[in-house]
Amino acid sequence: MDSASIYYLGVTLLLFLIFAVIVVRTYSRKHKAKGEEPKFRMMDDDKPKKEDNSEK
Amino acid sequence: MNQQEGYADDIVKGFVIWSMVWGLVAVLVGVFISFQIAFPQLNFPPYLTYGRLRPIHTNAGIFGWGIGSFMAFFIYITQRLTRTSLWSPGLAKAQLWLFNIVIALAAVTLAMGMNRSKEYAELEWPVASLVVVLWVIFAVNIVMTIVKRREEQMYISLWYILATLVGVAVLYLVNNASIPVSLTKSYSAYAGANDANVQWWYGHNAVAMVLTTPPLAIFYYFLPKTTGVPIYSHRMGVIAFWSLIFMYLWTGAHHLLWAPVPDWVQTLAMGFSVMLIAPSWAAVFNGYFSMNGQWHQMRENYLVKFLIFGITFYGMQTLQGPSQSIRTFSAFIHFTDWVPGHVHMGTLGWVSLVLFAAIYYTIPRLYHTEIYSVGLANVHFWLVLTGQLIFSITMWIAGVQQAAMLNATNPDGSLHYSFIETMVELYPYWHMRAVGGVIYLAGLLVFLYNIYQTITGGKAQAAAQRA
């Protein structure tokens, strides 16, 4: 196996690992409520928040 | 900037209106070139020939109607999902001017025959450079708005918006790398099979980052807003997003099956294309499950009809596309009329139905009025649905017949039909396609009339209140 093949294999494995981490984190029990929260918040009033009410 | 709401909505109005203008141009030219195929005597050289009008049709459709609308709704959605006003309304105004200048320049230069001859990347380098400036302005404004957001968690639409901004930038810069030899002529920086590989990496991912991720961003925002019920699963949306992003960029070479690119590249593209069914259908299921207990709205709410039929066309498209990437199927239908049938199911069905719904939803809100006529919106829906189905079904049948005839051989191995014999058999389908196009155009005119009346009604109402 030449260095290019090793590099491609490494990148593939890295991408797969990143995706696996995303899946595990998204579907972890701990993250469930937080992960679903945006779908409720986007239904709120369309008005922008006031400066002094910033929650970020 | 609309001070009453606190959002920069005037610019949204501008983008929506101009995208509808370019959408009308795209369909008018599309109908005309469909007649040119059926009746070749309608070609008027040098400017009004199929060869020059066809790229004008695709550019006006994908970039004028598509990108114009996406710019409108990205600005509209981003402000609301971040609960903050646009970072720079002034920059957005400049963006609107530049957008129209670029599309107009595209139409003129393509009609004059200035063309790089690359699918969906036809514009010569001066106009292509303006596109880069336009995209940078757009991306900076949206990204900065997201950066200063007042919502910690980002809703799924924002992920799709960010992917679009980054994806288009990378694809466009790589594929448009070229060496100018004059103001109106340049040559690709790549050659041979490499050039083809880069071109189809771009060409297919233009479908991903221009015709898939933006309508998904819009669908995920407007479906719950329209039904009044949140989407089924935000987490499923996030996983579908990341798997789509991880997979899509490897699939372009499925356009080069049986071509002199390495076999492993073709197989990789084929494999990833088939796997794409999973994230695509996750979005479809998310849409359908969101309708759980709400299916009655398909009868009662005309916007839901547009959105659900739109996502259904997306589902059909994302079954057909991966199937077409399989070598044997590709060998059968590639270079036949099956392909325009497939492409138009996506553009006339998926993308446009979702955009129609988004425009119907936003225009009354932007002009503080009601939609002029729900009845006309329903007429619009049935006309565009009928036109689209006639278009796609006739082209699928034509494609299969064409493929069967082109592949038919005599016992001695020679071709059974001459090329001209295969062409003659296609004329009835081309006539039907043109009729389908006219019906779609009629639907579009009903839509434009309805929106025009809604806007003028809103303006009249505002004037009466001021008086």
From TrEMBL, chain A:
<keyword id="KW-0472">Membrane</keyword>
<keyword id="KW-1133">Transmembrane helix</keyword>
<keyword id="KW-0812">Transmembrane</keyword>
<protein>
    <submittedName>
        <fullName>Cbb3-type cytochrome c oxidase subunit 3</fullName>
    </submittedName>
</protein>
<feature type="region of interest" description="Disordered">
    <location>
        <begin position="29"/>
        <end position="56"/>
    </location>
</feature>
<feature type="transmembrane region" description="Helical">
    <location>
        <begin position="6"/>
        <end position="24"/>
    </location>
</feature>
<feature type="compositionally biased region" description="Basic and acidic residues">
    <location>
        <begin position="34"/>
        <end position="56"/>
    </location>
</feature>
Automatic annotation (TrEMBL), chain B:
<feature type="transmembrane region" description="Helical">
    <location>
        <begin position="430"/>
        <end position="452"/>
    </location>
</feature>
<keyword id="KW-0349">Heme</keyword>
<keyword id="KW-0812">Transmembrane</keyword>
<dbReference type="InterPro" id="IPR023615">
    <property type="entry name" value="Cyt_c_Oxase_su1_BS"/>
</dbReference>
<keyword id="KW-0679">Respiratory chain</keyword>
<feature type="transmembrane region" description="Helical">
    <location>
        <begin position="341"/>
        <end position="363"/>
    </location>
</feature>
<keyword id="KW-0479">Metal-binding</keyword>
<feature type="transmembrane region" description="Helical">
    <location>
        <begin position="127"/>
        <end position="147"/>
    </location>
</feature>
<feature type="transmembrane region" description="Helical">
    <location>
        <begin position="235"/>
        <end position="257"/>
    </location>
</feature>
<feature type="transmembrane region" description="Helical">
    <location>
        <begin position="269"/>
        <end position="290"/>
    </location>
</feature>
<keyword id="KW-0813">Transport</keyword>
<keyword id="KW-0408">Iron</keyword>
<keyword id="KW-1133">Transmembrane helix</keyword>
<keyword id="KW-0249">Electron transport</keyword>
<feature type="transmembrane region" description="Helical">
    <location>
        <begin position="159"/>
        <end position="181"/>
    </location>
</feature>
<feature type="domain" description="Cytochrome oxidase subunit I profile">
    <location>
        <begin position="15"/>
        <end position="467"/>
    </location>
</feature>
<dbReference type="InterPro" id="IPR000883">
    <property type="entry name" value="Cyt_C_Oxase_1"/>
</dbReference>
<protein>
    <submittedName>
        <fullName>Cbb3-type cytochrome c oxidase subunit I</fullName>
    </submittedName>
</protein>
<feature type="transmembrane region" description="Helical">
    <location>
        <begin position="59"/>
        <end position="77"/>
    </location>
</feature>
<feature type="transmembrane region" description="Helical">
    <location>
        <begin position="302"/>
        <end position="321"/>
    </location>
</feature>
<feature type="transmembrane region" description="Helical">
    <location>
        <begin position="375"/>
        <end position="398"/>
    </location>
</feature>
<feature type="transmembrane region" description="Helical">
    <location>
        <begin position="201"/>
        <end position="223"/>
    </location>
</feature>
